[in-house]
Backbone:
C-alpha cells in the first residue's frame, strides 16, 4: 500500500518546513503549497488523502479553500485539519461548519498534529490507517497480528510482537530501553530495563531464523533500532 499523500497549505515557510520534515519522517508523502490558490491547484493535479490547511492564507483564505474543496465532488470527502492562530470558539465553529474535520490552534506540538492526522485518517479512510507496516523484507499485518520475513511466517510472543510493531513504525530510529519500556509495557508498569534486552534477543532470534541479516541494530549505551539499511 502506498503512503498517504498529505497536502500542507501554509504560508509560513518555517512552519510548513517543520510539518513536512516531521510528516515525511512518519512515512507520509508530503506536498507543500504557500498560498490558497496554489493549494487548490495542487489538489486538482493530485488528489490528496488529507489536507493540513492554515486559516490565514494569501490569495485565497483557508476558509474559502475548505469551502471549494468541499464543493468539488472528487475532493468532497478528503479529510481537512485546519491550523490557526485564532483560538476563539466562534472561529473554531466556523471552521468546522465549512467542512473541516479537525482543528488545531497555533502554537501546536508536532506529536499532537501526528496523532490528529492518524485519528482522522483512521476515521475517514480506514484503508489508509497503517494496517500493514513493512521495512525491508519484514511485513507486519496489524489486523491479523501476523509477521512475515522474506515471505516466511515469523512466530512471535505477544511482547515481541508489540516490540516489533513499535520499532517498525519508526525504522532507523534508536530507542533507549526506557523508551521501549514505556511504549511496549506502559509507563505505569514496573519492569527492569534488562527485560528489554531479553525480549529484543528473542525478537532478533525469531526474525533471523533462516535469514543471515540481523534487522535489529544495537547502539552501545543508547538502545536499539530496526535498521535493515544501516
Residues:
Amino acid at each position: 500500500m502506498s503512503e498517504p499523500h498529505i497536502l500542507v497549505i501554509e504560508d509560513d515557510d518555517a512552519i510548513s518546513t517543520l510539518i513536512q520534515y516531521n510528516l515525511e519522517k512518519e512515512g507520509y508523502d508530503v506536498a507543500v503549497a504557500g498560498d490558497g490558490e496554489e493549494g487548490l491547484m495542487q489538489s486538482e493535479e493530485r488528489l490528496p488523502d488529507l489536507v493540513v490547511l492554515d486559516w490565514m492564507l494569501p490569495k485565497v483564505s483557508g476558509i474559502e479553500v475548505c469551502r471549494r474543496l468541499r464543493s468539488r465532488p472528487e475532493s468532497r470527502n478528503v479529510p481537512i485539519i485546519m491550523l490557526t492562530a485564532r483560538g476563539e470558539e466562534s472561529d473554531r465553529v466556523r471552521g468546522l461548519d465549512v467542512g473541516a474535520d479537525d482543528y488545531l490552534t497555533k502554537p501546536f506540538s508536532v506529536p499532537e498534529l501526528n496523532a490528529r492526522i492518524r485519528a482522522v485518517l483512521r476515521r475517514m479512510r480506514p484503508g489508509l490507517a497503517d494496517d500493514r507496516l513493512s521495512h525491508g523484507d519484514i511485513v507486519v499485518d496489524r489486523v491479523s497480528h501476523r509477521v512475515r520475513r522474506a515471505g516466511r511466517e515469523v512466530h512471535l510472543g505477544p511482547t515481541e510482537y508489540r516490540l516489533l510493531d513499535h520499532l517498525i513504525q519508526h525504522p532507523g530510529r534508536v530507542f533507549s530501553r526506557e523508551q521501549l519500556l514505556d511504549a511496549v509495557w506502559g509507563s505505569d508498569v514496573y519492569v527492569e530495563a534488562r527485560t528489554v534486552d531479553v525480549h529484543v534477543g528473542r525478537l532478533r532470534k525469531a526474525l533471523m531464523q533462516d535469514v543471515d541479516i540481523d534487522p535489529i541494530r544495537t547502539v552501545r549505551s543508547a538502545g536499539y533500532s530496526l535498521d535493515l539499511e544501516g
Q: What stands out?
A: The longest strand covers residues 5-9.
